[in-house]
Amino acid sequence: MRIELEKLEGGRGSFAHVYRPEEIETIDERVRLTQPVQVKGGVKRSGNEVFVNGHVETRAQLECDRCLKPVELPVSADFELEYITGAEYESSSAAALNEEEMSVSVFDGESIDVDEIVKEQVLLAVPARMLCREECKGICPECGIDRNSGQCNCAAEEVDPRWAALKGLKNTDR
Ligand SMILES: [Zn+2]
Ligand SMILES: [Zn+2]
């Protein structure tokens, strides 16, 4: 969905849309959306600047970083964005840009791409580190068993190589 600035009455408007999960392709392959994505918000135009604020909501499924079990969690984000035209950006970058102005996005002066906003906000709202629970024991790197549901002897069998050699000698003695 795009917001055409020309159609804004008095430079203001509001928007609301519901995307199917598959319409919002997140770049992060860990993240799979499991519910429709709702977005709503407002737009305000002021000269060459456009202010967009709103709220995004959905549910996402991620894998636990340790045991790879799928974990579902709510995604909810408020956003406040500022856009300026490319021409405006160039003239204001000639003057020293302060940090606040650096977070501004450049747009074509005609429309705002809500799809892009939603994709970005969903990614920002998803945690970078995901655990099914804080004390998740993960997967054994040797045999692949899920240590939360079973135990293996891999760690116990990890013997000092020198002992292993002795063990070997013993066996040949027999
Ligand atoms: Zn886990
Ligand atoms: Zn194991």
Residue stretches low in confidence (pLDDT < 50, at least 5 long) are none
Bound molecules: zinc ion
Beta-sheet strand percentage? 25-35%
Q: What is the structural class?
A: alpha+beta
Largest sheet: 6 strands, mixed
Query: What pattern of helices and strands is seen along the backbone?
Result: EEEEEEHHEEHHH
What value does the average pLDDT take? 85
Structure annotation, total helices: 5
Structure description:
With 174 residues, the chain is an alpha+beta fold. It contains 5 helices and 8 strands. The strands form 2 sheets. Strands 2, 3, 4, 5, 6 and 7 form a 6-stranded mixed β-sheet that branches. A two-stranded antiparallel ribbon has the order 1-8. It is elongated and about 80 Å long. The mean pLDDT is 85. Bound molecules: zinc ion (2 copies). One zinc ion (ZN) binds next to loops.
Furnish the topology, listing elements before pairings.
Layout: E1 2-4, E2 12-19, E3 32-33, E4 37-46, E5 49-63, E6 70-85, H1 86-94, H2 99-102, E7 105-107, E8 111-113, H3 114-125, H4 154-157, H5 161-173
Parallel strand pairs: 6-7
Antiparallel strand pairs: 1-8, 2-4, 3-5, 4-5, 5-6
Bound molecules: zinc ion (2 copies).
Top keywords for this entry?
single chain, 174 residues, alpha+beta, 5 helices, 8 strands, 24% helix, 34% strand, binds zinc ion
Outline:
Helices cover 24% and strands 34% of the residues.
